[in-house]
Amino acid sequence: MNEMEYRMDFDDRREYAYNKALEILDNDDDAFIEACNELDSWNGFMNDARCYSMSELDELLGETSPSKILSQVTGDFDINDDYFYFSIHGLESTDDMTDVYRDEHTIEEVLDALIDCYRVDVYDSELNRVVTILRDDDFGIDLDWEYDEDMDDDDAPEMTDDEFKSFVDG
To answer: For the residues of 134-164, what is the DSSP string, one character each?
Structure first.
């Protein structure tokens, strides 16, 4: 048995998985937006910054055609954008909801909320796998285990460090 295979403790494994999830949220806009939307549908995570498709404008604002009225409004609202949202400045629009969501919450805030909210799953399989690992209490290791050179392989923790990294990395 190689002592080096089992050097990562609970905190090391949590940090490795946490950094992997941050990398996913930072590099995959779709996963970030989906995570924000899932959290918002569960607990209002996005506050008023949730983006809606411009095609929902009339439906959300009533039976009269607010899009006609709003198209006359000057400022940060453009009826030709893809999305709209409510901010402290009023009704605004954007072609890229990623910027709006990233302005509202950091990737760390999104990840911490995903870990804490057990009822929220994301459809991005890579992110969901890593968040599930982060929700696990022991990260695939026995917290009381210590290396002893006289141990048999049967006495080793559930996963070696390399197996854990491969599992997290997918």
So the answer is: HHSSSTTS-TT----TT--GGGS-SS-HHHH
> Structure pTM?
0.72
Distance CA(153)–CA(123), nearest Å, equals 37
pLDDT of residue 66: 67
Q: pLDDT value at position 150?
A: 56
Are 141 and 13 a contacting pair, CB within 8 Å?
yes
Distance (Å, whole) CA 1 – CA 17: 25
d(CA 77, CA 90): 9
The letter for the amino acid at 93 is S
Instruction: State the Cα angle at 9 between 7 and 10, rounded to 5°.
Output: 160
